[in-house]
Write a structure and sequence with these properties.
Elements lengths: L1 H11 L3 H25 L7 H19 L20 H23 L3 H33 L7 H21 L3 H26 L4
Helix pairs in contact: 1-5, 2-3, 2-4, 2-5, 3-6, 4-5, 4-7, 5-6, 5-7
């Protein structure tokens, strides 16, 4: 998958407009993640770590969006379908991961209410951070090879920190967190594969 992903991103970054759609889509996903964190929060019991994570996800969305001007001087002011890459699959990805992980938690752990929300937040975020730790370094490698003005190095550093933080939180949540995290990653991988397939259909690998 790593080689396929690298080839796909190389293909996407050849065209400035398509590259801008890709960048805007990553921004959309980061922003969606930040909003989901806020929805998972308790009304009163909000830790410094959760606030930090939400703030950094919002910053990532802003940072990616801001760099669009380096690729496209106009357009991309919003997340309308015209400015996203494979918009339907991209929007479906995170929402369905929430649904699938929540169903797994309810069935396996019998949780409901806020406990269900919190467990879903932990597992969904963990799976996404694992994916981010794969995707962003590959993207940065390609950007560096092209000597692109676009950079995602600061995001990579923060995502590595996020993953370690999620491991700590998951360990506090359950002694069997690794089993549950593996399932969450398997569910995420199904959605990621579908996303990559949709992109490959739009931008066939040379």
């Amino acid at each position: 998958m790593t080689n396929q992903l690298k080839l796909l991103i190389e293909q996407i970054t050849q065209d400035p407009f398509v590259h801008a759609q890709w960048l805007n889509t990553l921004s959309f996903m980061e922003n969606t993640g930040a909003k989901k964190i806020s929805r998972f929060e308790s009304k009163t019991d909000v830790s410094l770590l959760v606030l930090k994570h939400a703030a950094e996800e919002h910053r990532h969305a802003y940072y990616l969006k801001k760099q669009l001007a380096k690729l496209a001087p106009t357009g991309f002011e919003n997340y309308d379908d015209a400015w996203l890459i494979s918009p339907q699959t991209s929007k479906y990805y995170l929402d369905m991961l929430d649904v699938w992980v929540s169903k797994y938690i309810k069935k396996t752990l019998g949780l409901s209410g806020y406990e269900l929300k919190w467990a879903a937040y932990l597992l969904v975020t963990y799976a996404i951070e694992v994916r981010a730790d794969e995707l962003y370094p590959i993207y940065q490698e390609i950007l560096s090879a092209k000597q692109s003005k676009i950079q995602v190095k600061s995001i990579i550093v923060e995502e590595v920190g996020h993953l370690e933080e999620m491991k700590t939180q998951l360990a506090a949540f359950s002694t069997e967190w690794e089993t549950h995290a593996t399932v969450a990653c398997e569910l995420e991988n199904k959605l990621f594969q579908a996303w990559i397939q949709s992109l490959t259909q739009l931008y066939p690998l040379n």
